[in-house]
Amino acid sequence: MKWAERPPNPLPEALQKMKARVTVTLKSGILDPQGKAIEGALKSLGVGGVASVRQGKIFDIEIEGGDRAKAETALKNAAEKLLANTVIENYRIEVTG
Questions:
Q1: pTM of the full predicted structure?
Q2: What distance in Å separates the CA atoms of residue 57 and residue 70, rounded to the nearest whole number?
Q3: Phi, psi at residue 24, to the nearest 5°?
Q4: CA–CA separation, 79 vs 19, rounded Å?
């Protein structure tokens, strides 16, 4: 069963929990020295076919409550204030439960 097809959670909202993932990546055009270092290391290890590497961050977050819109708003606020430097980074939020 896909996440979108899950039946509503029968627990009271105060006891419900949702899982979310915030993925932060550098904007295109921003130099990525860590990605370049990883790319070089992969090549030196003999990993073939690596054209380029861009490094990012993933935050797996558990949210209390069952209000998806409220969770997405809170995560957007967290991403813009703490998790991502929006001058040089993009972020994507996925709520899965």
A1: 0.79
A2: 23
A3: -115, 125
A4: 15
